Amino acid sequence: MPKAEKVYYTIGEVAGLFNVNASLIRFWEQEFTILKPKKNKKGNRLFTQRDLRYLHMIYHLVKEKGYTLKGANEALKEDFEQLEARVFAIQTLHKARQFLLELDAGFADQLKKK
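Above: the chain sequence. Below: its structure as C-alpha cells.
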C-alpha cells in the first residue's frame, strides 16, 4: 500500500526536505506572497502540499538558477504555470534517477552474491 502523504508539515520538516535552515523558510515566507502556511494556536507554521510546491519553485529559482529574490518573484508572477510544470518535471526526473540508482545497487548486490 502506498504511503499516504501528510496533510501538514512543520517548518523543521520542510527545512529538512530542502536541506536549509528554518530561518530561510521563514525569510522566504516574508519575501514571497504566494507562501502562506497555516498557523496553529501556538503560532507554529503548518505547510501544505501546495506550500511545498511553491517552495520547490522558489528553491529552484533562487538556489539552483541563482535568481535574486526580486527576479524570482517576477518569474513567479510572469510564468507561474510554465515554472510549475518545469519544476514538476525536474522532481520527476530526480525521483526516476534515484529509483534507477537503487535498482542498479540492487543488481550489483545480486551479482556479488553469485
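Residues 14 and 52 are 8 Å apart (CA to CA).
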